[in-house]
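for the writeup, i need someone to sanity check this before i put it in the appendix. the sequnce is what the collaborator sent (i think, or maybe the updated version? ugh). structure was predicted straight from it, no edits. if anything looks off just tell me and ill rerun, i have time this weekend
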Amino acid sequence: MRKLFEYDLWGPPRRFRPEQILQLGRLLIGLGDRELQELILVDWGVLSTLGQIDGWSSTQLRVVVSSFLRQSGRHVSHLDFIHLTALGYTLCGLRPEELQHISSWEFSQAALFLGTLHLQCSEEQLEVLAHLLVLPGGFGPISNWGPEIFTEIGTIAAGIPDLALSALLQGQIQGLTPLAISVIPPPKFAVVFSPTQLSSLTSAQAVAVTPEQMAFLSPEQRRAVAWAQHEGKESPEQQGRSTAWGLQDWSRPSWSLVLTISFLGHLL
């Protein structure tokens, strides 16, 4: 693939024009680390294109975001919500100690988009990102968040500390997106959610629980998830009984109906 890039198309990556990079799209994953470093990333369209591609290796994520910072002359603390949104998946190329320098206000504005992505961040990176949201300029203490905030931050909620997750109320839990539920590390998922909390999941949330997460749950927790998966739905047995009663009601008229028909028959 590299030979195709270098010799059969437009030459080495350092010569790629923005429109060529946009055209390649997901094929850019085939570039090596050195070739990625050669890409010119200061163009807004190019940065956004790379930020919307999932499947980068951790090394590639690091190369892309580092190259952008170097070429743009920006420090992490100077990234606004537009830059953060454009970086998208590649934001996970920043080390935890670098993520700490992101403006909490800017990040809270970008969270609406970033939270829709299945970010390839480590657990430590997600914890830093979630912490940014409780700092001044963010959303404040987690205990005060309404379900709409949990919905807005999406997958970033997976980085909320164990103690804070275990203290969530039913309304707050139901604000978590199904994708956020699915990306919580299995050991953490088993530790933070009690059977009572798990039973309060919506059916969509419960269905999002992964087999890996289920494997870490206790029998009681698994039963709670199974119950939540069928919340609001009749079991086949209940549906059979409902159908049977319905047929019985129609096939066996009530005594009041029989008496009414008999009375009308005498009048005619």
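The chain has 20 helices and no strands. The two ends are 92 Å apart (CA to CA).
thx in advance!!
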